[in-house]
Amino acid sequence: MAACGLDFGTSNTTLGLIGAGGLALARLEGEAVTIPSAIFFPPAGDEAIGRAAMAAYVEGAPGRLMRSLKSVLGSSLLDETTPVGRRRLSFRAVIARYLAAVKARAEDQAGEPLTQVVHGRPVHFVDGDADGDRRAEEALAGIAREVGFTDVSFQYEPIAAALDYERGLDREEVALIADIGGGTSDFSVVRLSPARHRAVERAGDILANDGVRIGGTDFDRTLSVGEVMPLLGLGSPMRRPGLDVPSAYYHDLATWSQINRLYDGKTLRELRSLRREVARPELIDRLAAVIEAERGHTLAMEVEAAKIALSEVERVDLPLGWVEPGLQAEIDRPDLARHSADLARRIAACIARCLRDAAVDPGQIDALFLTGGSTRLAPVRTAILAAAPEARVVEGDTFGSVGLGLTVEAARRYG
């Protein structure tokens, strides 16, 4: 029987093992220690997870791709059913199948069953809803037990990142830990040192925690709504003066966890009827083409890739020739900044609250520790660095720090 640390993320998942050689992340897909939080259900046969799931979808294999699974925790979607192949499964069952597959791969590497887990969790699964937050944690704990963990406990993801960072310190610091993932932005102000790292009880060193349900997928959504969905008819007029095309289709298509809801047949029937009432039916034809081909995730992946590319280049041409020959979206950094401005402001406000709750001035922060893939986004990075401009910036393992920190905690709790 063995313990582990499990970082089930909105976009990616890692699992840390405790071995004779110390702590290490398990290889979950080939040699990769990260695995995308994605699952693909073919019409018959076994499902695929991770990169294999994404590849099956991109290559046009028949079936159903589901991604950003974690985002349904704390929502009414969790117990709703969705068609996968020739059956219907609840989203809870889908998450269980994904985590069971991850656990089995890690056990193959560990050579023994994994029965004890420290699960990562955001500071808030659900903003401003304590009951929803509690239900989300209880649901995730229940799923963990369903897949074979007998001892399940939780640690905040930014605290886990702090525990990983602390392993390399040679002096005491006050650090602001920023963990910006696919679904949430989480912050902690923590007092760290080599001596403190040996202590089991660390509550007194955690000066403040805060978080907001904003992550990389939200930046995908706002960019898609702002730059891509107008090409499919968002904001275009109806024939009746003063009315625009209903926007709900576009917001679902731009939101990872909602895309599959458009594939129920009802949506296409509604669009065929709507087409007769709009001023520009060719735009509705584009929307219908995406939905009929069940290519919403293709669109979301291309928007995500464009967002990531804008961290390195000034402009990206997003080709949409598969929707209509010659169609493309032209997106540049100012577009990303404009559409992300409100999200960045909310992240900055969350950091300010966290510092205030910790009773720490920005100048007292020795280090800014950044982890999570979305810390690479320029609007996010700017908001974080402005919060403590004199602090040393430390780049953590973008996708591995939280998983390793959870494993540090697992070794303490169960070792």
Automatic annotation (TrEMBL):
Transmembrane segments: none annotated. GO terms for molecular function: ATP binding; ATP-dependent protein folding chaperone. Signal peptide: none annotated. Keywords: ATP-binding, Nucleotide-binding. InterPro entries: ATPase_NBD, Hsp_70_fam, YegD-like. Gene3D superfamilies: 3.30.420.40. It holds the Pfam family HSP70. PANTHER family: HEAT SHOCK PROTEIN 70KDA. This is Heat-shock protein.
